[in-house]
Amino acid sequence: MVGLKEELLKSIWHAFTALDLDRSGKVSKSQLKASAAARPGPVLSHNLCTVLNVPHDPVALEEHFRDDDEGPVSNQGYMPYLNKFILEKVQGNFDKVEFNRMCWTLCAKKNLSKSPLLITDEDAFKVWVIFNFLSEDKYPLIIVPEEIEYFLKKLTEAMGAGWQQEQFDHYKIALNTSREGLSAWELIELIGSGQFSKGMDRQTVSMAINEVFNELILDVLKQGYMLKKGHKRKNWTERWFVLKPNIISYYVSEDLKDKKGDIILDGNCCVEALPDKDGKKCLFLIKCLDKSFEISASDKKKKQEWIQAIQTTVSLLRAGSPPPHKEARQKRKELRQKLLAEHEELERQMKELQTANENKQKELETVRKQLEAAAARAAEEEKKRLQTQVELQDRFSLELEREKMVRQKMEEQVAQKSSELEQYLQRVRELEEMYKQLQEALEDEKQARQDEETVRKLQARLLEEESAKRAELEKWHLQQQQTIQMTEAEKQELENQRMIKEQALQVAMQQLEQLELERKEALEQYEEVKKKLETAANNTKSWKDKVAHHEGLIRLIEPGSKNPHLITNWGPAAFTEAELEQRQKSWKGKKNTSE
To answer: Do 34 and 46 form a contact (C-beta atoms < 8 A)?
Structure first.
């Protein structure tokens, strides 16, 4: 992406520098905005976003320069905006020729020479694009003599003429005396003047420019007519083939308007010659992962050229190398940079040597004077040294005695500290033992708490079950009381009817029969309740205690004893004598109360 960005910047630089300048030599902001009201016709920012397929933000430029709304926009101010809002969003999915043509349209009218040229405007456009490809990466853009020579050699080779090295050497000498290189418009004027294409007509020059343009700009490595065998109908059809670094496209004709298909190349592809068959000669096969393509060249030379070109392309894909012309351009730039660096380094070393020689002369004179002064100082310093030596000996003796005393004190302190350290270590061991015991006690306590929690949960579950059984028993007790109250009310009604008229006896007998059925159902319900009570009694003892507590008030219906049964007007008695007496007292009390 860095190389693509540099190529885009070169074309944009031409378009930007061609915009109208104000008095201060800067471009007005209205020429960069994407608003149609800024000025008639297309404007730079909007056109760039359109041809580069970048989403356009009409407010971005205004916000970028919001602190300078009244003043013009300089090149230095516009480039950060260009990088941030346009170039950083470029994905490579745009038409490079259309992009270059847009920039060419903005700058050609102002910069192209008015003098008649031997090349067309389309050829001039292609030379301008080639200039951007070969120019140096510094501004203002120029193309150095080495790249001019490379370009002219390519043109001469494409025209089928011989290269005039001597003629170019004279031109190069004249060029080097005045400047470092040519601008794009000077290069166009050089090509259009016919200085290096004498004897060639316009069509030949135009075809040569187009061939060099296809190779350097469109990455066309080879192109030409060949026959291709169909995959379905197996017929042979003439197609115009175009070989690029990773693809072979074939068209109906060389105008490239009707594209028929692509052959995608990668490192796994291969090409091999085939023997003549079916009346077709000069055959070769292109093998890809998904399918193979049989091609027939016009002659053996073309066949070998195509096989060699495709093999070279596949080898470059396997190695991950750029196309040959781009790699050659990079090597030429690196060589120029290396030579320039070596030349600069040589000049720097010469200057350093000259400066070092002058410095050495000065240093020698300074050293001579310093030696004379040093000899005088040496005698004086020797005298002072002897005196200082005596003083130092006395001082060292005192220091030695003092050091002995300090060492003795330090040894005593070390012995004391060793004793204290031993006591401290003993205390640490005791604490560690206590810590282990404490850990064991905590583990025992933790286990006891877990056991206690387990027992507590078991007790809670038993209490819940006991509570549920108690609620169920109370429910059945309430139903039994209601049944008894209904029986008392019916008995009172029968007594009244018996005293009123004797005929009600028959009705009472029918009711007694109904009550007999209900009593049997009650006995069945009692059996079910008895079973539930037995289950509850097995789960907890507390339930029996509470049943015993209420036994004086409620006595559950049970099978009669072996003693003689009481006979009532309802049939065999379901109560004991004590219970019957208690019920009679209750009935009499209610009767007295009602009277």
So the answer is: yes
